[in-house]
Protein: GH18 domain-containing protein
Amino acid sequence: MTNWAQYRPGSAAFTPENIDPFLCTHVIYALATINSFNQITPIEWNDQQMYSSLNGLKNINPALKTLLSVGGTVNGVSPFIAMVAKPESRADFIRSAITYLRSHNFDGLNLGWEYPGHNGSPMQDRERFTLLLSVSFSVEPAHGVTLSLKVTNLLLSIYSFVIYIKH
Structure:
């Protein structure tokens, strides 16, 4: 579900209250971003309230898993570019992300970076993104956190899939 869907006119507006918690096994909440301190930060004024409503669905269906998607652009630039630039900032992001996810009752993180090495991102970011993923598996508090990636083919952008890695 997207945080901007709440602004659709009339009956097209969509919030966590519109979700049947038995319809899916996983729900991804989009979208949060990354601040200059390499920490997840909400975008909309009511995101934290929406997090609570979405994760409250787990009281109805305890098997439901929720993930928070991080990505988008800030002033036209991916927030991942600065974060992946140094090993320390990658490690800081993963540690703070785990704390953020747990404090808001999310089961995992969806990394929605389109596209490392393109759209103003240097080609080295492809390798840096891979290094980010390897750091995410080495951080001890990450145990039990699901990591998903949005992977989109640049040539055939209509094909998109998500992989889930249970750490």
Q: What stands out?
A: Strands lie at 26-34, 40-42, 65-71, 108-112, 146-152, 160-166. Confidence is low (pLDDT under 50) at residues 153-167.
